[in-house]
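so im writing up the methods section and need the Peptide synthase record in one place, dumping it here so i stop losing it
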Amino acid sequence: MPLMDVEHQANICRHLKRAAKETPESLAVAVQKRLLTGKYRYQELSFGELDADSDRIARALAGYGIARGMKAVLMVTPSLDFFALTFALFKAGVIPILVDPGMGIKNLKQCFAEAEPDAFIGIPKAHIARCLFGWGKPSVRRLLTVGGSELFARALGGISLKALLKAGAQTPAVYRVSNEMALLGNDEMAAILFTSGSTGTPKGVVYTHAMFEAQINVLRNDYGIVLGERDLATFPLFSLFGPALGMASIVPDMDASKPITANPANLFAAIEQYQCSNMFVNPALIERLGQAGVALSHTLPSIRRVISAGAPATISSIARFSKMLNDGVEVLNSYGATESLPLTMIGSEQLLNTTDVTDSGGGICVGKPVDGVDVAIIAITEDSIPAWDEALRLPANTVGEIVVKGPMVSSGYYRRASATEHAKILDSYTGTNDAGASDTSPNKPSVRHRMGDLGYLDLHGQLWMCGRKAHRVEANRVDSKYDEHSYFSIPCERIFNTHPKVKRTALVSVEIKGETVPLLCVELEKGIKLEQSELAINSFYDELKAIGAKHRQTAGIVDFLIHPDFPVDIRHNAKIFREKLAVWAQHKKGTR
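--- predicted struct ---
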């Protein structure tokens, strides 16, 4: 790699090394394990220990042939080994490939085929799946097993982490790698993070250390996280930011890929044990913990900040969850995606004041952009846009596609040229590098990312979400009564969700008598059962029509179907698989 000055080099591990030098004895990571007796055991690492362990692993990986520039799948459950391995990979300049196990076997195989990993690092269960389904078979040359026996690891043709470290300690010094961590260029690939696939085919997002640096800056400056805090870490990727911020990551005993199955007692115990000041929770956990908090009259007096991301949490679930918090403590809702996160932020106090607008079809307010982020709204189009022009920017209060630019915005997908072309817009040189610092390199282009979401900016600069672009319905019903021909999922659904019997709704498109029309799938509140008579069901539908007729956004929605249980993503339990519902609805309408 050509030489470059330090200003244009980065590695997220520099923050860990600084913490290890300044506060080596301070807690960096704690992992909870619930015993059969109901009691808890905690494993801990200090900043000094985490830095030293990751150094040892980085040297041992190099000795095993996993070196800078190589790609390694990392399928290890949140644990002390997960933290040490991840930082070791970053230190060694090895590119970790991180996937969501909940995306399904078929998608996982596709991800590994695209990424072509050189190494596979995983727990025994992950290696068994790798063998059964052929994950990464054409490209993987190094196998490392975390946990399990050495016999198991050898049988697979690889080595265990324990044996690797033992061999590394015996390696002559002349063959060992330097303790100095790899310094990568700001635009050099540092990691590949695959999207969940909940709204389409999973894609590998190329991350740089400069992107990680930008995310750390936002968490420190916009969210106010300070040295010495303790975070209840329920999402593996976010938990890595803890040590980088000088904040301890407390990992509760839960399946991070299925938060809805978490035992609230485990999370409450971990928060109390370490007096956590921060917690990162997605909408599924907000709902689950809020219900448990009400049932148990539980409070969280040590929590000073709650960060929620992944999908919009309902206002009712946030209000319920907030009852556990001290006065003045807010749930900070973040908007973003794997390709660019975080982008905007809004506190729960302000969000709760937007209920009337949301229930009237105004979309969900996701707040103002964080420092360094520019949000623009452009006209809805399926065409690619090669270059940015300010003339593309729509005026306030106009619904269009959300486009963002900032130092945490990724520049492309890994080996997905077509997807990159459709999602990215090249912009002119801005005078800052990807970490937000001044950049003197000439003619450096920046990239705007098309979020694939629809929304609008109000007169105060706040962003309002109106749903996925792919989920809008462009109706061609020939009926002069209805002026609206474009229907957006969130505004329409939130209007109908105000019916007391409705839990949630999903807008889909169906073909009826040669016309494309909007249809609303309805899931009833738990415990609500309608009489299975045509009269009772039609009476319910008439009530929904009456609600829709009051708003221009929904006046043309007159077709409804009751669905027993919406298909949703595993991680957030909030992203509705509308594509599946559309097929179901078309079948139901076609057989009536």
